[in-house]
Amino acid sequence: MQYVLFPSYSNTFGSSLNTRSFSAGSGFRFGFNGKENFDNYQDYGFRIYYPSLGKFLSVDPLTKVYPWFSSFHFAGNTPIQAIDLEGAEPKSVVSEKYRTNLPWSLPPSGDDPEGTEEISGSIVIVTYKFTKGSTHLLSLVSGIAKGEISRAEIRVNGGGILPTYDPNTGGGGITFPGKNNTYRINLTANYFDKLNNKFGDYGYQDNVIAWLDMMSHEIGHVEDIQEIGKDKVGYFMQFAKEYAKAGSHANSWREKRAEIGRTTFRSFNSFVNSYYGQDKLKALFENKNNSDKDIVERLDQWWRQYQKKIETDTKVEETKKE
Questions:
Q1: Please, what are the averages of pLDDT over each run of 10 residues along the chain (322 residues)?
Q2: CA-CA distance, 123 to 127, in Å (whole number)?
Q3: Closest CA relative to residue 203, chosen from 33, 1, 56
Q4: pLDDT for the residue 24
Q5: Which strand (E) or helix (H) includes residue 242?
Q6: Ranges of each domain in the chain
Q7: Among 27, 109, 156, 319, which is disulfide-ready with 2 (CB 3.0 to 4.6 Å)?
Q8: How many CA atoms lie within 13 A of 38 on its CB side?
């Protein structure tokens, strides 16, 4: 999905070569780009791909965004250097910032019929950033300045720093100092996988509320990075000490502080559901007709009413005590 092995020994557009055979056998379930093989086609989630033609059998959902491309083509018609992602991340919450291609190669082996060909390719890592709408909301609920949130970079877990949470039971995230004065947020793979695919009910790929719920906690750790410093080793050592002192991850005062943002987000979402209609916050972000400006203005309107309700509820409670 976000990490894609792209072997050079495949046919250009992923169809099989009759002159090649592999030890995995003809019954191997997954093929080109790691997608599941069916009878002469592969399921990319949002579209069915026909490798013999190098084309999809339906229009790209993003065709209006890229009018200069054919709406049926695969990977920009440049499959050697490009891949076709499922394209279902919550684009109202995050958008692609940049891609990194990490080359890999394997020496010739017995699986190569000719015995002389090196197998090579690249791993494509997609890095995301928050949209203006999600940046605004996360700033409201966490108290972190929008300028700081805009420096966050989001990836699926990878490399040497991974969330240890089980993606099959909900997964999680980890926030730490990034390069060039950025903040890195790694999420478990279920946040990049759609509902009822690999992770059952915990596929949050296009679940706006699940993403905002998690990020309203993770973005709170920006404050920890500012306090502890941007040295990764020192940062993680400090957290390890505090976890040990608290007796658990959840009891750490830094985790409790970050959790305030999530608690506030959940309270605000409940308020919107009650006063403006069920799933209105979700709909606000998912409606493609809403610009960033529309989302920010509506959030501010709802937030003002939310704050008024808190003030009213507080006064009522104080009156009761008197």
A1: 38 56 52 65 70 72 57 60 54 88 67 58 82 97 98 81 82 94 93 81 90 98 96 94 94 97 98 96 93 96 97 89 76
A2: 13
A3: 1
A4: 46
A5: helix 232-246
A6: 1-87, 89-98+125-315
A7: 156
A8: 8
How far apart (Å, rounded) are the C-alpha atoms in residues 31 and 244?
45
Would you state the pLDDT for residue 195? Answer: 73
Cross-strand bridge partners of residue 152: 183
Residue type, 57: L
Q: Residue 70, CB half-sphere, CA atoms under 13 Å: how many?
A: 12
Sheet holding 42-43, edge to edge: 36-37, 42-43, 48-50, 55-56
Q: How far is CA 156 from the centre of its chain?
A: 6
Place of tokens 């959840």: 250
Residue 38, amino acid: F
R_g of the chain computed on alpha carbons: 23
DSSP strand pairing (42-43 vs 36-37): antiparallel
| Residue pair 220/103 in contact by the 8 Å Cβ criterion | no
Identify which of 18, 82, 79 has the alpha carbon closest to the alpha carbon of residue 54.
79
Write down the pLDDT at residue 70.
Answer: 63
* Distances 32 to 43, 82, 108 between C-alpha atoms, Å: 11, 13, 20
Tokens of 21: 């055979």
Q: What is the pLDDT of residue 4?
A: 39
Q: Find tokens 């000719």 and name the residue.
A: 114
Angle at 70 between CA 66 and CA 73, to 5 degrees: 110
